Automatic annotation (TrEMBL):
EC top class named in words: transferase
GO molecular function: S-methyl-5-thioribose kinase activity
InterPro entries for the chain: Aminoglycoside_PTrfase (IPR002575), Kinase-like_dom_sf (IPR011009), Methylthioribose_kinase (IPR009212)
Highest taxon of source: Bacteria
Record-linked PANTHER family: METHYLTHIORIBOSE KINASE
Protein name: Methylthioribose kinase
Lineage of origin: Bacteria, Bacillati, Bacillota, Bacilli, Bacillales
Functional description taken from the UniProt entry: Catalyzes the phosphorylation of methylthioribose into methylthioribose-1-phosphate.
Subunit organization: Homodimer.
Amino acid sequence: QIKPTYEPLNEVTVLEVVKALDFFEEAALSHLHVKEIGDGNLNLVFHIEDQASKKALIVKQALPYAKVVGESWPLTLDRARIESEALLKEAESVPHLVPKVYYSDRTLAVTVMEDLSDHLILRKGFIDGHTYPALAEDIGTFTAKTAFYSSDFYLHPFEKKEQVKRFSNPELCKITEDLVFTDPFFNHDTNDYPAELQSEVDKIWNDTELLREVSKLRFSFLSKAEILLHGDLHTGSIFVKENSTKVIDPEFAFYGPAGFDIAHFIANLALNYLSQNAHAKEPFNRESIQLYLLQTIEKSWDTFTETFTQLWNEKSTDPYAHVDGVLENFLQKTFQQAIGFAGCEIIRRTIGLAHVADLDTIQQKDVELFYKKKALELGSKLIKNQRNITNITELTDWIRGA
Ligand code: ADP
Ligand code: MG
Ligand code: MG
Ligand code: MG
Protein backbone atom coordinates (compact mmCIF):
# COMPACT_ATOMS: atom_id res chain seq x y z
CA GLN A 1 0.00 0.00 0.00
CA ILE A 2 1.46 3.32 -1.12
CA LYS A 3 -0.56 5.63 1.17
CA PRO A 4 -2.45 4.74 4.38
CA THR A 5 -5.44 6.91 3.44
CA TYR A 6 -6.86 8.66 0.40
CA GLU A 7 -5.39 11.97 -0.67
CA PRO A 8 -5.70 13.75 -3.99
CA LEU A 9 -2.39 13.46 -5.83
CA ASN A 10 -0.49 16.28 -7.47
CA GLU A 11 2.31 16.41 -10.04
CA VAL A 12 4.84 15.74 -7.24
CA THR A 13 3.10 13.12 -5.08
CA VAL A 14 1.95 11.10 -8.09
CA LEU A 15 5.61 10.07 -8.46
CA GLU A 16 5.35 8.06 -5.24
CA VAL A 17 2.80 5.86 -7.01
CA VAL A 18 4.99 5.52 -10.07
CA LYS A 19 8.12 4.71 -8.05
CA ALA A 20 6.35 1.85 -6.30
CA LEU A 21 5.87 0.22 -9.72
CA ASP A 22 8.47 -1.50 -11.78
CA PHE A 23 7.80 0.43 -14.97
CA PHE A 24 10.58 2.97 -15.52
CA GLU A 25 14.34 2.36 -15.38
CA GLU A 26 15.80 3.25 -11.99
CA ALA A 27 17.92 5.99 -13.62
CA ALA A 28 14.83 7.65 -15.16
CA LEU A 29 12.94 8.05 -11.88
CA SER A 30 14.71 11.27 -10.89
CA HIS A 31 13.76 13.19 -14.01
CA LEU A 32 10.32 11.99 -15.11
CA HIS A 33 8.14 14.55 -16.84
CA VAL A 34 4.70 14.87 -15.21
CA LYS A 35 1.64 16.70 -16.52
CA GLU A 36 -1.99 16.68 -15.39
CA ILE A 37 -4.04 16.34 -18.60
CA GLY A 38 -7.59 15.58 -17.38
CA ASP A 39 -10.43 18.05 -17.78
CA GLY A 40 -10.87 18.11 -14.03
CA ASN A 41 -14.61 17.60 -13.49
CA LEU A 42 -14.48 14.20 -11.84
CA ASN A 43 -10.98 12.80 -12.04
CA LEU A 44 -7.30 13.66 -12.26
CA VAL A 45 -5.34 12.23 -15.20
CA PHE A 46 -1.54 12.40 -15.01
CA HIS A 47 0.74 11.72 -17.96
CA ILE A 48 4.17 10.60 -16.78
CA GLU A 49 7.00 10.22 -19.26
CA ASP A 50 10.67 9.40 -19.39
CA GLN A 51 11.63 11.80 -22.14
CA ALA A 52 14.85 9.92 -22.91
CA SER A 53 13.28 6.54 -23.63
CA LYS A 54 9.81 7.98 -24.53
CA LYS A 55 8.25 5.39 -22.21
CA ALA A 56 5.12 6.77 -20.58
CA LEU A 57 2.11 5.80 -18.52
CA ILE A 58 -1.13 7.30 -17.26
CA VAL A 59 -2.25 7.59 -13.63
CA LYS A 60 -5.98 8.28 -13.34
CA GLN A 61 -7.32 9.17 -9.90
CA ALA A 62 -10.93 9.64 -8.86
CA LEU A 63 -11.75 12.78 -6.83
CA PRO A 64 -14.25 12.42 -3.97
CA TYR A 65 -16.55 14.98 -5.56
CA ALA A 66 -17.84 16.04 -8.97
CA LYS A 67 -17.91 19.65 -10.08
CA VAL A 68 -21.35 20.20 -11.53
CA VAL A 69 -22.72 23.62 -12.49
CA GLY A 70 -20.06 25.30 -10.35
CA GLU A 71 -20.95 23.27 -7.28
CA SER A 72 -19.26 20.26 -5.75
CA TRP A 73 -21.22 17.10 -5.13
CA PRO A 74 -19.78 14.20 -3.16
CA LEU A 75 -19.22 11.20 -5.42
CA THR A 76 -18.02 7.74 -4.46
CA LEU A 77 -14.36 6.80 -4.94
CA ASP A 78 -15.55 3.24 -5.57
CA ARG A 79 -15.91 4.22 -9.23
CA ALA A 80 -12.10 3.90 -9.54
CA ARG A 81 -12.40 0.25 -8.47
CA ILE A 82 -15.24 -0.21 -10.97
CA GLU A 83 -13.14 1.39 -13.74
CA SER A 84 -10.08 -0.81 -13.06
CA GLU A 85 -12.12 -3.98 -12.75
CA ALA A 86 -14.17 -3.20 -15.87
CA LEU A 87 -10.99 -2.58 -17.90
CA LEU A 88 -9.59 -5.92 -16.71
CA LYS A 89 -12.87 -7.71 -17.42
CA GLU A 90 -13.08 -6.18 -20.91
CA ALA A 91 -9.47 -7.21 -21.54
CA GLU A 92 -10.50 -10.86 -21.08
CA SER A 93 -12.54 -10.74 -24.30
CA VAL A 94 -11.25 -7.67 -26.23
CA PRO A 95 -7.66 -7.02 -25.03
CA HIS A 96 -6.79 -5.07 -28.19
CA LEU A 97 -9.63 -2.58 -27.63
CA VAL A 98 -8.82 -1.29 -24.11
CA PRO A 99 -5.79 0.31 -22.43
CA LYS A 100 -3.66 -2.15 -20.47
CA VAL A 101 -4.00 -1.78 -16.70
CA TYR A 102 -0.60 -1.88 -14.99
CA TYR A 103 -1.73 -1.33 -11.41
CA SER A 104 -4.68 -0.21 -9.35
CA ASP A 105 -5.02 1.00 -5.78
CA ARG A 106 -8.36 1.16 -4.00
CA THR A 107 -7.18 3.40 -1.15
CA LEU A 108 -5.92 6.06 -3.53
CA ALA A 109 -8.72 5.38 -6.07
CA VAL A 110 -6.07 5.10 -8.74
CA THR A 111 -5.73 3.21 -12.03
CA VAL A 112 -2.32 3.12 -13.68
CA MET A 113 -2.62 2.30 -17.36
CA GLU A 114 -1.15 2.30 -20.81
CA ASP A 115 -0.44 5.72 -22.32
CA LEU A 116 -2.53 6.27 -25.43
CA SER A 117 -1.33 9.78 -26.25
CA ASP A 118 -0.62 8.72 -29.83
CA HIS A 119 -4.41 8.32 -30.21
CA LEU A 120 -7.01 11.09 -30.56
CA ILE A 121 -10.40 11.39 -28.86
CA LEU A 122 -12.94 10.29 -31.49
CA ARG A 123 -15.26 13.27 -30.96
CA LYS A 124 -12.43 15.62 -31.85
CA GLY A 125 -11.39 13.49 -34.82
CA PHE A 126 -14.93 13.58 -36.22
CA ILE A 127 -15.34 17.33 -35.71
CA ASP A 128 -12.05 17.85 -37.55
CA GLY A 129 -13.39 15.74 -40.43
CA HIS A 130 -11.38 12.53 -39.99
CA THR A 131 -12.71 9.03 -40.61
CA TYR A 132 -11.53 5.73 -39.13
CA PRO A 133 -11.87 2.54 -41.22
CA ALA A 134 -11.59 0.06 -38.32
CA LEU A 135 -13.95 1.87 -35.95
CA ALA A 136 -17.27 0.21 -36.85
CA GLU A 137 -15.93 -3.31 -36.59
CA ASP A 138 -14.04 -2.53 -33.39
CA ILE A 139 -17.04 -1.05 -31.59
CA GLY A 140 -19.35 -3.82 -32.89
CA THR A 141 -16.86 -6.39 -31.59
CA PHE A 142 -16.34 -4.58 -28.28
CA THR A 143 -20.07 -4.35 -27.55
CA ALA A 144 -20.89 -7.90 -28.72
CA LYS A 145 -18.09 -9.70 -26.88
CA THR A 146 -18.39 -7.80 -23.61
CA ALA A 147 -22.16 -8.41 -23.81
CA PHE A 148 -22.11 -12.13 -24.54
CA TYR A 149 -19.38 -13.11 -22.09
CA SER A 150 -21.02 -11.24 -19.21
CA SER A 151 -24.54 -12.55 -19.89
CA ASP A 152 -26.68 -15.41 -18.63
CA PHE A 153 -26.35 -16.90 -22.12
CA TYR A 154 -22.76 -17.77 -21.20
CA LEU A 155 -22.03 -17.49 -17.46
CA HIS A 156 -23.17 -19.90 -14.78
CA PRO A 157 -26.02 -18.17 -12.91
CA PHE A 158 -23.99 -18.10 -9.65
CA GLU A 159 -21.06 -16.45 -11.42
CA LYS A 160 -23.35 -14.01 -13.24
CA LYS A 161 -24.94 -12.93 -9.95
CA GLU A 162 -21.48 -12.48 -8.40
CA GLN A 163 -20.56 -10.21 -11.30
CA VAL A 164 -23.77 -8.20 -10.91
CA LYS A 165 -22.84 -7.58 -7.26
CA ARG A 166 -19.25 -6.73 -8.08
CA PHE A 167 -20.30 -4.15 -10.66
CA SER A 168 -23.02 -2.62 -8.50
CA ASN A 169 -22.54 1.11 -9.19
CA PRO A 170 -25.52 2.92 -7.61
CA GLU A 171 -24.13 6.47 -7.45
CA LEU A 172 -22.98 6.64 -11.06
CA CYS A 173 -26.16 4.93 -12.27
CA LYS A 174 -28.13 7.62 -10.42
CA ILE A 175 -26.31 10.29 -12.45
CA THR A 176 -27.43 8.56 -15.66
CA GLU A 177 -30.96 8.02 -14.35
CA ASP A 178 -31.29 11.73 -13.64
CA LEU A 179 -29.33 13.31 -16.48
CA VAL A 180 -30.37 10.97 -19.31
CA PHE A 181 -33.79 9.63 -18.38
CA THR A 182 -35.43 12.22 -16.11
CA ASP A 183 -34.26 15.83 -15.98
CA PRO A 184 -34.36 16.66 -19.74
CA PHE A 185 -38.00 15.53 -19.88
CA PHE A 186 -39.14 17.89 -17.12
CA ASN A 187 -38.52 21.50 -16.17
CA HIS A 188 -35.47 20.79 -14.01
CA ASP A 189 -32.65 23.21 -13.03
CA THR A 190 -29.92 20.94 -14.37
CA ASN A 191 -31.20 21.53 -17.91
CA ASP A 192 -29.19 23.87 -20.11
CA TYR A 193 -30.44 25.24 -23.44
CA PRO A 194 -30.84 28.57 -25.19
CA ALA A 195 -34.16 30.38 -24.70
CA GLU A 196 -34.79 30.14 -28.48
CA LEU A 197 -35.36 26.39 -28.04
CA GLN A 198 -38.14 26.80 -25.44
CA SER A 199 -41.02 25.98 -27.78
CA GLU A 200 -39.27 22.75 -28.95
CA VAL A 201 -38.53 21.89 -25.32
CA ASP A 202 -42.16 22.51 -24.35
CA LYS A 203 -43.21 20.12 -27.10
CA ILE A 204 -41.10 17.39 -25.48
CA TRP A 205 -42.36 18.10 -21.97
CA ASN A 206 -45.99 18.00 -23.13
CA ASP A 207 -45.75 14.91 -25.32
CA THR A 208 -47.51 12.20 -23.29
CA GLU A 209 -46.73 9.46 -25.79
CA LEU A 210 -43.03 10.36 -25.67
CA LEU A 211 -42.94 10.52 -21.87
CA ARG A 212 -44.60 7.10 -21.63
CA GLU A 213 -41.87 5.59 -23.80
CA VAL A 214 -39.09 7.34 -21.88
CA SER A 215 -40.51 6.00 -18.60
CA LYS A 216 -40.26 2.45 -20.01
CA LEU A 217 -36.67 3.02 -21.12
CA ARG A 218 -35.79 4.45 -17.72
CA PHE A 219 -37.37 1.47 -15.98
CA SER A 220 -35.35 -0.91 -18.18
CA PHE A 221 -32.18 0.97 -17.33
CA LEU A 222 -33.01 0.68 -13.61
CA SER A 223 -34.09 -2.94 -13.52
CA LYS A 224 -32.61 -5.08 -16.31
CA ALA A 225 -29.27 -6.61 -15.27
CA GLU A 226 -28.65 -8.29 -18.65
CA ILE A 227 -25.00 -7.62 -19.45
CA LEU A 228 -21.96 -5.74 -18.17
CA LEU A 229 -22.11 -2.31 -19.81
CA HIS A 230 -19.41 0.30 -20.25
CA GLY A 231 -22.12 2.75 -19.23
CA ASP A 232 -20.71 5.91 -20.87
CA LEU A 233 -19.84 4.92 -24.46
CA HIS A 234 -19.96 8.34 -26.11
CA THR A 235 -17.33 9.49 -28.62
CA GLY A 236 -15.35 11.16 -25.80
CA SER A 237 -14.72 7.70 -24.29
CA ILE A 238 -13.16 6.33 -27.49
CA PHE A 239 -9.55 6.89 -28.48
CA VAL A 240 -8.66 6.38 -32.17
CA LYS A 241 -5.72 6.22 -34.48
CA GLU A 242 -5.71 5.25 -38.18
CA ASN A 243 -6.30 1.54 -37.52
CA SER A 244 -6.64 1.33 -33.76
CA THR A 245 -9.57 1.82 -31.41
CA LYS A 246 -9.37 1.95 -27.60
CA VAL A 247 -12.36 2.28 -25.31
CA ILE A 248 -11.48 4.20 -22.12
CA ASP A 249 -13.24 5.54 -19.02
CA PRO A 250 -15.62 2.75 -17.88
CA GLU A 251 -16.28 4.28 -14.45
CA PHE A 252 -20.05 4.07 -15.15
CA ALA A 253 -19.86 0.30 -15.75
CA PHE A 254 -22.76 -1.75 -14.35
CA TYR A 255 -25.12 -4.58 -15.34
CA GLY A 256 -27.88 -3.15 -17.51
CA PRO A 257 -29.95 -3.60 -20.68
CA ALA A 258 -28.05 -5.03 -23.68
CA GLY A 259 -28.70 -2.23 -26.19
CA PHE A 260 -27.50 0.62 -24.00
CA ASP A 261 -23.81 0.96 -25.00
CA ILE A 262 -24.23 0.63 -28.76
CA ALA A 263 -27.13 3.07 -28.57
CA HIS A 264 -24.85 5.69 -27.05
CA PHE A 265 -22.27 5.13 -29.74
CA ILE A 266 -24.92 5.46 -32.48
CA ALA A 267 -26.49 8.55 -30.86
CA ASN A 268 -23.14 10.34 -30.71
CA LEU A 269 -22.46 9.53 -34.37
CA ALA A 270 -25.91 10.87 -35.24
CA LEU A 271 -25.19 14.11 -33.32
CA ASN A 272 -21.92 14.46 -35.18
CA TYR A 273 -23.69 13.71 -38.49
CA LEU A 274 -26.06 16.64 -37.87
CA SER A 275 -23.21 19.02 -37.09
CA GLN A 276 -20.83 18.07 -39.93
CA ASN A 277 -21.57 20.84 -42.42
CA ALA A 278 -21.37 23.48 -39.70
CA HIS A 279 -17.76 22.46 -39.00
CA ALA A 280 -16.52 22.44 -42.59
CA LYS A 281 -13.85 25.14 -42.70
CA GLU A 282 -13.16 25.17 -46.42
CA PRO A 283 -16.01 25.65 -48.87
CA PHE A 284 -16.40 21.92 -49.40
CA ASN A 285 -19.25 19.99 -47.98
CA ARG A 286 -18.87 16.98 -45.80
CA GLU A 287 -21.22 14.60 -47.58
CA SER A 288 -18.59 11.89 -47.80
CA ILE A 289 -17.96 12.06 -44.05
CA GLN A 290 -21.69 11.99 -43.40
CA LEU A 291 -21.98 8.91 -45.59
CA TYR A 292 -19.10 7.34 -43.65
CA LEU A 293 -20.91 8.07 -40.34
CA LEU A 294 -24.08 6.34 -41.52
CA GLN A 295 -22.09 3.38 -42.85
CA THR A 296 -20.27 3.20 -39.51
CA ILE A 297 -23.58 3.07 -37.65
CA GLU A 298 -24.78 0.27 -39.95
CA LYS A 299 -21.57 -1.70 -39.80
CA SER A 300 -21.19 -1.43 -36.04
CA TRP A 301 -24.70 -2.83 -35.55
CA ASP A 302 -24.14 -5.57 -38.17
CA THR A 303 -20.85 -6.53 -36.50
CA PHE A 304 -22.58 -6.56 -33.11
CA THR A 305 -25.25 -9.00 -34.33
CA GLU A 306 -22.87 -11.18 -36.36
CA THR A 307 -20.34 -11.47 -33.53
CA PHE A 308 -23.03 -12.07 -30.92
CA THR A 309 -24.68 -14.71 -33.15
CA GLN A 310 -21.40 -16.53 -33.69
CA LEU A 311 -20.67 -16.61 -29.95
CA TRP A 312 -24.23 -17.76 -29.30
CA ASN A 313 -23.94 -20.61 -31.80
CA GLU A 314 -20.56 -21.73 -30.53
CA LYS A 315 -20.75 -21.08 -26.81
CA SER A 316 -24.24 -20.45 -25.47
CA THR A 317 -25.11 -22.45 -22.34
CA ASP A 318 -28.77 -21.43 -22.53
CA PRO A 319 -31.06 -24.51 -22.73
CA TYR A 320 -33.20 -22.69 -25.32
CA ALA A 321 -30.29 -21.50 -27.45
CA HIS A 322 -31.03 -23.91 -30.32
CA VAL A 323 -34.76 -23.13 -30.44
CA ASP A 324 -35.76 -21.26 -33.57
CA GLY A 325 -36.40 -17.57 -32.99
CA VAL A 326 -34.91 -17.28 -29.49
CA LEU A 327 -31.77 -15.41 -30.53
CA GLU A 328 -33.71 -13.40 -33.12
CA ASN A 329 -36.17 -12.25 -30.44
CA PHE A 330 -33.34 -11.19 -28.15
CA LEU A 331 -31.59 -9.24 -30.93
CA GLN A 332 -34.82 -7.62 -32.11
CA LYS A 333 -35.77 -6.49 -28.60
CA THR A 334 -32.23 -5.22 -28.03
CA PHE A 335 -32.31 -3.28 -31.31
CA GLN A 336 -35.64 -1.63 -30.58
CA GLN A 337 -34.56 -0.60 -27.11
CA ALA A 338 -31.28 0.72 -28.51
CA ILE A 339 -33.27 3.05 -30.78
CA GLY A 340 -35.08 4.41 -27.73
CA PHE A 341 -31.88 4.80 -25.70
CA ALA A 342 -30.25 6.58 -28.63
CA GLY A 343 -33.20 9.00 -28.76
CA CYS A 344 -32.81 9.80 -25.04
CA GLU A 345 -29.06 10.38 -25.45
CA ILE A 346 -29.63 12.74 -28.41
CA ILE A 347 -32.15 14.79 -26.43
CA ARG A 348 -30.13 14.99 -23.25
CA ARG A 349 -26.95 16.04 -25.07
CA THR A 350 -28.95 18.90 -26.62
CA ILE A 351 -30.92 20.30 -23.66
CA GLY A 352 -29.63 18.49 -20.56
CA LEU A 353 -26.66 19.19 -18.30
CA ALA A 354 -23.74 17.74 -20.31
CA HIS A 355 -23.63 18.77 -23.95
CA VAL A 356 -21.48 17.64 -26.88
CA ALA A 357 -18.87 19.82 -28.56
CA ASP A 358 -20.22 18.69 -31.96
CA LEU A 359 -23.26 20.97 -31.51
CA ASP A 360 -22.00 23.42 -28.88
CA THR A 361 -18.93 24.61 -30.78
CA ILE A 362 -20.85 25.61 -33.91
CA GLN A 363 -19.76 29.23 -34.46
CA GLN A 364 -22.92 30.77 -35.88
CA LYS A 365 -25.74 30.97 -33.36
CA ASP A 366 -28.56 30.52 -35.90
CA VAL A 367 -26.84 27.46 -37.39
CA GLU A 368 -26.36 25.98 -33.91
CA LEU A 369 -30.05 26.50 -33.12
CA PHE A 370 -31.07 24.99 -36.46
CA TYR A 371 -29.16 21.76 -35.82
CA LYS A 372 -30.23 21.57 -32.17
CA LYS A 373 -33.86 21.69 -33.31
CA LYS A 374 -33.10 18.90 -35.77
CA ALA A 375 -31.53 16.88 -32.94
CA LEU A 376 -34.58 17.29 -30.70
CA GLU A 377 -36.89 16.23 -33.54
CA LEU A 378 -34.75 13.20 -34.34
CA GLY A 379 -34.44 12.13 -30.69
CA SER A 380 -38.21 12.37 -30.16
CA LYS A 381 -38.96 10.47 -33.37
CA LEU A 382 -36.59 7.64 -32.45
CA ILE A 383 -38.13 7.26 -28.99
CA LYS A 384 -41.68 7.19 -30.37
CA ASN A 385 -40.89 4.92 -33.33
CA GLN A 386 -38.79 2.22 -31.64
CA ARG A 387 -41.17 -0.48 -32.80
CA ASN A 388 -41.61 0.90 -36.34
CA ILE A 389 -37.90 0.82 -37.15
CA THR A 390 -37.17 -2.82 -37.84
CA ASN A 391 -33.64 -2.80 -39.23
CA ILE A 392 -30.48 -0.73 -39.14
CA THR A 393 -30.82 0.79 -42.63
CA GLU A 394 -34.25 2.11 -41.67
CA LEU A 395 -32.55 3.77 -38.70
CA THR A 396 -29.85 5.39 -40.86
CA ASP A 397 -32.60 6.52 -43.29
CA TRP A 398 -34.23 8.36 -40.38
CA ILE A 399 -30.94 10.00 -39.45
CA ARG A 400 -30.33 10.98 -43.09
CA GLY A 401 -33.89 12.34 -43.22
CA ALA A 402 -33.26 14.56 -40.18
P1 ADP B 1 -12.98 11.35 -17.09
O1 ADP B 1 -13.61 10.16 -16.45
O2 ADP B 1 -12.62 12.39 -16.11
O3 ADP B 1 -13.76 11.84 -18.27
P2 ADP B 1 -11.16 10.07 -18.97
O4 ADP B 1 -10.75 8.67 -18.62
O5 ADP B 1 -12.19 10.23 -20.01
O6 ADP B 1 -11.55 10.83 -17.62
O7 ADP B 1 -9.86 10.88 -19.36
C1 ADP B 1 -9.89 12.28 -19.55
C2 ADP B 1 -8.87 12.67 -20.60
O8 ADP B 1 -7.57 12.25 -20.18
C3 ADP B 1 -9.09 11.95 -21.93
O9 ADP B 1 -9.98 12.65 -22.74
C4 ADP B 1 -7.71 11.93 -22.51
O10 ADP B 1 -7.39 13.18 -23.08
C5 ADP B 1 -6.83 11.74 -21.28
N1 ADP B 1 -6.57 10.28 -21.08
C6 ADP B 1 -7.31 9.42 -20.34
N2 ADP B 1 -6.80 8.17 -20.40
C7 ADP B 1 -5.71 8.24 -21.17
C8 ADP B 1 -4.72 7.28 -21.63
N3 ADP B 1 -4.79 5.99 -21.26
N4 ADP B 1 -3.74 7.72 -22.43
C9 ADP B 1 -3.65 9.03 -22.79
N5 ADP B 1 -4.52 9.97 -22.40
C10 ADP B 1 -5.55 9.60 -21.60
MG1 MG C 1 -14.02 14.20 -19.16
MG1 MG D 1 -14.22 10.65 -19.95
MG1 MG E 1 -15.44 9.39 -16.93
